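Lab meeting, item 3. Inverse folding demo.
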């Protein structure tokens, strides 16, 4: 198997070097670019398997770079943002990024995110696609689509179709942040008739059902002002 190559587009040399060191010690090959222009050129020349993209670049924004890349490729993109206020744009406006990390971050956090994204994107491409099969499993939760059954630690959860649908979306891509709109589009038949608070209400009842089996189990994280994400490592 060939090495996974990661293009890092980041203009602050100290941050770029920290990332390079962290990734290379995990066995990834890194390619560094300090501007959007160099980044796009290297992306064309090297076809990396993964892109880490700073939002604040000197020549163009990371969002513009992402848009350029997305015209041609579905390569996983992890955004680096300097401000919490940029998160809304990263995930909310469907920039096409796969995830984001807010600066300052620890190298360990970054490599963990990269690996999580690579796991779920390669699972998506694999022919034994868990996303399309009957059984879906993540952490302590198991779903069976054919039997329309959801279990926590093998104990049955009685879920409504919306709760089941949201859990299915979460389990397909653990750790990804979904906006309420994204959840509606994936789960509701007529998303345009659903409201933000409809999603919130179903999340609430879903949490309650998980708590009825284990009161300390809380894998659904609220990302304030953005939406929700499923974190199997929590609880
Ligand atoms: Ca920057």
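The presenter then showed the designed sequence:
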């Amino acid at each position: 198997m060939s090495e996974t190559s990661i293009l890092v587009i980041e203009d602050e040399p100290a941050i770029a070097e920290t990332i390079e060191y962290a990734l290379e010690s995990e066995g990834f090959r890194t390619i560094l670019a300090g501007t959007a222009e160099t980044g796009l050129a290297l992306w064309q020349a090297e076809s990396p398997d993964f892109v880490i993209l700073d939002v604040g670049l000197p020549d163009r924004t990371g969002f513009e770079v992402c848009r350029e890349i997305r015209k041609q490729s579905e390569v996983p993109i992890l955004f680096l943002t300097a401000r919490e206020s940029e998160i809304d744009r990263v995930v909310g406006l469907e920039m096409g990024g796969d995830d984001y990390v807010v600066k300052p971050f620890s190298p360990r956090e970054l490599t963990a995110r990269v690996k999580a994204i690579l796991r779920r994107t390669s699972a998506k491409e694999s022919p034994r696609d868990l996303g399309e099969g009957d059984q879906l499993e993540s952490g302590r939760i198991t779903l069976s689509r054919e039997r329309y059954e959801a279990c926590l630690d093998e104990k049955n959860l009685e879920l409504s179709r919306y709760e089941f649908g949201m859990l299915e979306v979460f389990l397909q891509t653990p750790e990804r942040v979904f906006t309420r709109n994204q959840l509606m589009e994936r789960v509701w038949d007529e998303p345009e008739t659903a409201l933000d608070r409809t999603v919130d209400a179903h999340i609430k009842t879903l949490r309650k059902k998980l708590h009825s089996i284990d009161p300390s189990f809380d894998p659904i994280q609220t990302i304030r002002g953005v939406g929700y994400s499923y974190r199997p490592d929590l609880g």
